[in-house]
Design goal:
The longest helix has 17 residues. The chain has a six-stranded antiparallel β-sheet with strand order 1-2-3-9-4-7. Strands 6-5-8 form a three-stranded antiparallel β-sheet, with no helix packed on it. A hairpin with a 2-residue loop joins strand 1 and strand 2. With 126 residues, it is mainly beta. It contains one helix and nine strands; from the N terminus they run βββββββββα. The radius of gyration is 14 Å and the shape is globular. 21% of the residues are buried.
């Protein structure tokens, strides 16, 4: 199986540079995502253990800068970095960012179900 990153199916396009393209291959979610500067995912993980993402991720920062908040301290990922994130993290996008990421389907879906509920409950700008 293969795909061009920017041709993966769009799952969500939130506008303003926030887009998620993904597919499932062999029990893993393959995602190409873009985030605008200033997105703090903290409110999206409310209700998960420690109010943090509970899916592990392996990925590559194509462009940008993201601060990863963890209980044991923050660290920064930037253009060109490869990474592994254990469960228990929250990303804060300090620059416009593009990532390519791989996540186990089960843990990813459990986390995204909570994220979707939190997004649906969030007030919308008028």
């Amino acid at each position: 199986m293969h795909h061009a990153m920017k041709e993966l199916p769009i799952v969500e396009d939130y506008g303003d540079g926030f887009c998620s393209r993904l597919t499932e291959w062999g029990g893993m979610i393959v995602s190409y995502e873009t985030f605008p500067k200033g997105v703090d995912a903290t409110p999206l993980f409310k209700g998960l253990p420690d109010n943090m993402c509970q899916s592990p991720h392996w990925g590559y920062i194509l462009r940008g800068r993201v601060r990863i908040k963890r209980k044991d301290g923050d660290f920064v990922l930037k253009t060109g970095d490869v990474y592994y994130l254990e469960p228990g993290h929250v990303p804060v996008f300090e620059e416009e960012t593009e990532i390519l990421e791989f996540s186990p389907k089960k843990e990813y879906q459990e986390t995204i179900d909570v994220v979707a509920r939190n997004m649906a409950a969030a007030p919308t700008a008028t």
